[in-house]
Design brief:
The chain is an alpha+beta fold. About 35% of the residues lie in helices and about 35% in strands. It has a single domain, classed as Alpha-Beta Plaits (2-Layer Sandwich). About 20% of the residues are buried.
């Protein structure tokens, strides 16, 4: 199965929304943890979250899009931008 990188950037001044929605987001990701290669927040130089990066295995782009659309972070409008890109693991 192919991998897909889901790269998301938060809207400005959305730290409270991210914190409020985090438990639901983590439940959504954990419900699909068998598909996760890596997942975690993107960080500003000061260590505060500014987005998310997930690299996950899906049958096709439609399945990756369905997962991303079901993410509570997406559903509450946390992201300024989101991309879903096919990704190929080379190393390690």
């Amino acid at each position: 199965m192919p991998y897909f990188a889901i790269h998301c950037i938060d809207k400005a001044d959305s730290a409270d929304l991210r914190a409020e929605t985090r438990p639901a987001h983590l439940a959504h990701v954990n419900a699909h943890k068998d598909k996760v290669l890596v997942a975690g927040p993107l960080l500003r130089p000061d260590g505060r979250a500014m987005g998310s990066l997930l690299i996950m295995e899906f049958e096709d782009r439609d399945a990756a899009l369905a997962f991303a659309n079901g993410d509570p972070y997406h559903q509450v409008g946390l992201f300024e931008s989101r991309s879903i890109t096919n990704w190929h693991k080379v190393l390690p």
